[in-house]
């Protein structure tokens, strides 16, 4: 990291999904802010939820690093499912969710109903969820990207786990998906089989492309894998607002997401400078993928990947401090 400004030093502690991450500091000297940036109030401890995908851990790596080095915060992370993260906003164990994918039901419950959470603005990331096949399949079977033709290929996708139906491979069971309902309502001869995690889902798509074996599954962006393996999306019936309102009747594609941030209301209302920083924080899919790939493929710890990105993007992150 560049050393143009005096810094508070953070102590190494927790691990984010098996990757080393800095989690706090204490007894540090006061920060001298850059011109135009007001001196920060005491940040104290910031509790950040960590959801189980690599893009989210990239968010935590960079945001957490800057909260510690620039604002002197003590950052504590907790690995949680999406639903459990929202519950943490309610019981006070979580201050912020850095990447929220829709969840209108949870917003209604915790923001509109219990009034314990607030929206903190967009992350800048564009989220896409869908059904994908490896590129070799789209080239070999050009009409496989037409969902109405999928039943004709069901036998091709049979596995020991799917029985007499074609396999549809999902990821982490905690991810909120519509796939089983879509299969039922679109009358497709498939069954959902869970890979178990993002890492296992990625490995399955890599293997399917390398070995030219059939695979149909759930995937999404931003995700660094798409820069290595150009998975081909299968468009489902067009998404229209409200077509997924009844979870038992969903027969349309996933909605496009403008990913956003959610904060615990008392944390935000306290005037903590970390809340202002997180409100200001936005970056691109390319930014997130760069950090996530460094952490998962290039042998870097969360701290090393964050420092690399921070050193190369000073003009971007200094705006988040204002």
From TrEMBL:
<feature type="signal peptide">
    <location>
        <begin position="1"/>
        <end position="28"/>
    </location>
</feature>
<protein>
    <submittedName>
        <fullName>ABC transporter substrate-binding protein</fullName>
    </submittedName>
</protein>
<feature type="domain" description="ABC-type glycine betaine transport system substrate-binding">
    <location>
        <begin position="45"/>
        <end position="311"/>
    </location>
</feature>
<keyword id="KW-0732">Signal</keyword>
<dbReference type="InterPro" id="IPR007210">
    <property type="entry name" value="ABC_Gly_betaine_transp_sub-bd"/>
</dbReference>
<dbReference type="Pfam" id="PF04069">
    <property type="entry name" value="OpuAC"/>
</dbReference>
